[in-house]
Amino acid sequence: MLSENLEKKTKIKIYLVLTLFLICFGAIWKRLYNVQITQHERLLNLSNKQYFKAFYSTPQRGAIYDKEGRDLAISIEADSIYANPLEIENPLKTAGAISSVLQLDKIKLYRELEHEKGFVWIKRKVTPDEAEAVESLNLKGIRFLKEGRRFYPKRGLAARMIGFVGMDNHGLSGVEYFGDDYLKGKSERIVIEKDALGRGVNFSKEYGGITEKGYDLRLTIDEVIQYIAEKELAAQVTKYKAKGGTAIVMDPFTGEMLAMANQPQFNPNSFAQYREKDWRNQIISDNFEPGSIFKLILSAAVLEEKMAGKDDIFFCENGELKIGEIVIHEAKGHKYNWLTLKEIIGKSSNIGAVKLAQNLGAKRFYDYMLKFGMGSKTGINLPGESTGKLRDIKEWSGISLASISFGQEISVTHLQIVTAVSAIANGGLLMRPRIVKSVEKDGMVLEEFKPEVIRRVVSEKTCKEITEILEYVVMSGTGQKAAIEGYTVAGKTSTAQKADEGKKGYSEDKYMSSFVGYVPSKKPRLVIMVGIDEPEGVAWGGEVAAPVFKEIARQSLRYLKVPSENEGIYTVKNRELRAKNYL
To answer: Averaged over 205-219, what is the pLDDT?
Structure first.
């Protein structure tokens, strides 16, 4: 009996031990399955992170061309210098030798080289001379890696429009920023093996990636016209010791920007040496009060709504008009009695503009400003565009209608104005301005940005009437210095007082002098706007900006081989006779 109980207890113990063993084996098997099968990829990645360190080299960026395929921005191979501190026997001596060649901080470099790690950047994308100088030192632990470096062969040409890239090869401004997703290539992944203490040892060849070049961008900019615009603008800014200037050339029928010039310039190959404000494309980002140029929008609205004809006359109050407590005067101290609508624009009468605006009414005027694109972005394929500032009509004061009629109390960009004037030049269609023409790969067009009509703003009939008025401005009005031998020119001047910074009212000696026009006036090929910011001495738009328009237009028409007009050729010699016939 005792023997049977002992045998029974022994069996129970065996079963318990076996059950416990099976439970433990099951738990171990489950754990192994989880580690080896379920979490294999995750744990392998964690393991690799312990033994490998990855970074990315700079791929070759796509090129930027002008409309004729001429290089504006390209990528070239450059040496980047790095070190493996584990191979360097004397970090202080090595740091001293390299810092003297590359003009680096010796102490800072020494601290980097004495670290127990396998990879340290010394200097990326060095010049060929710097690379050769460091290589000639024949220092142990110092190595070279090829990376893509951005290069702008035309230096400052169209720099504010093209933009530049940072050390990581990403676009930071201009077309480089807008087209970054197209231009940037596929990075090369470079992996360094690490030892048990986490220190870098050497490159792991099996972890290398493949660098893929980015797409190319073809712009609407024409390098020759861009050069002409920059040359003539720079000369006038220098002559009048101006703060800066802008010049824009646009094809009114396609919306293509043929030139976008800013002064002063900067060299994007060394952009870090310039002030941040020198990088900004003033044409699209800076707001200004347009002054008398805005009378174009007003007169187009008046004619379109048939509130007056170009030969209707208005009493211009002999130079003074009081609205509430404000007295409005003419520019230059002129005093006009009776003027036709055409003469109001031609002589740039402020009081005449007020009379036109009063005839039109605030609501209609406001609606046409919106139609012409004021207060909204044009949609150009560039970053940093401003909307300008057009206050809602509910916020207007008793003087606002009068002030806006001659271009005060409203802020616009140069691009908004040249786009609006292009609508008049092409017969009434507001076009979306374009700077990028196509995306290409190995010469093949992958994507094309075609002309886009935003809306019709006025009729062709109104545009023809406005063109006649603007021809008169150039022939007998304020824009005579914009006249070009062999071509009829339509244009408008402006001499806008700038607001006093930090004060109320307007400056007595700071102006934005502008001229905008198109040529040939009957069949326009070019719409050009010139702005000279704060010229010294003479400030009138007709004196300062109009001559720049003339030279840009004259040289560009010759380059484009636009024949002179066969009929009604305007020449300076017969100005007086034709002006009399016009009147």
So the answer is: 70
Classify 576 as helix, strand or coil.
helix
Rounded distance, CA 176 to CA 181, Å? 9
CA–CA separation, 422 and 435 (whole Å):
15
Distance CA 134, CA 132 (A): 6
Is residue 516 helix, strand or coil?
Answer: strand
Peptide bond into 153 cis (omega under 30): no
The dihedrals phi and psi of 528, each to the nearest 5 degrees, come to -130, 135
HEC sequence for 74-102: EEEEEEEEEECHHHCCCHHHHHHHHHHHH
CB atoms within 10 A of CB 364: 16
3-state secondary structure at position 391: coil
Tens digit of pLDDT for each residue in 328-361?
888 777 889 999 999 999 999 999 999 999 999 9
Taking residues 180-184, report their average pLDDT: 92
Separation between Cα atoms, residue 47 and residue 64, nearest integer Å: 43
Judged by DSSP in three states, 507 sits in strand
Decide which of 209 and 64 is more confident: 64
Q: Would you list the domain boundaries of the chain?
A: 54-218, 223-266+283-439+448-582
Helices and strands, counts by H and E, the chain: 20, 21
Say whether 223-266+283-439+448-582 and 54-218 share the same fold: no
User: Which residue from 538, 491, 500, 494 is spatially nearest to 512, judged by alpha carbons?
Assistant: 494
- Written as six digits, the tokens of 182 are 């197209």
C-alpha 166/C-alpha 170 separation (Å) is 6
* CATH class assigned to 223-266+283-439+448-582: alpha beta
Which residue type does 517 have?
G
- Measuring CA to CA, which residue among 478, 466, 469 is closest to residue 347? 478
Q: Which fold has domain 54-218?
A: Penicillin-binding protein 2a (Domain 2) (3.90.1310)
Query: 507: how many CB neighbours lie within 10 A of its CB?
Result: 13
List Cβ neighbours of 13 (8 Å cut-off, separation of 6 or more): none
**What is the set of active-site residues?**
292
Q: What is the pLDDT of residue 299?
A: 96
Strand boundaries in 360-483, DSSP class E: 429-431, 436-441, 444-448, 453-456
Stretch (H or E) spanning 187: none
E strand or H helix at 106, and its extent?
helix 106-113
DSSP state of 35: I
Q: Among 3-7, 61-65, 401-405, which stretch is predicted with the lowest mean pLDDT? A: 3-7
Structure tokens at 335: 């005093």
* Strand bridging mode 244-250 / 526-533: antiparallel
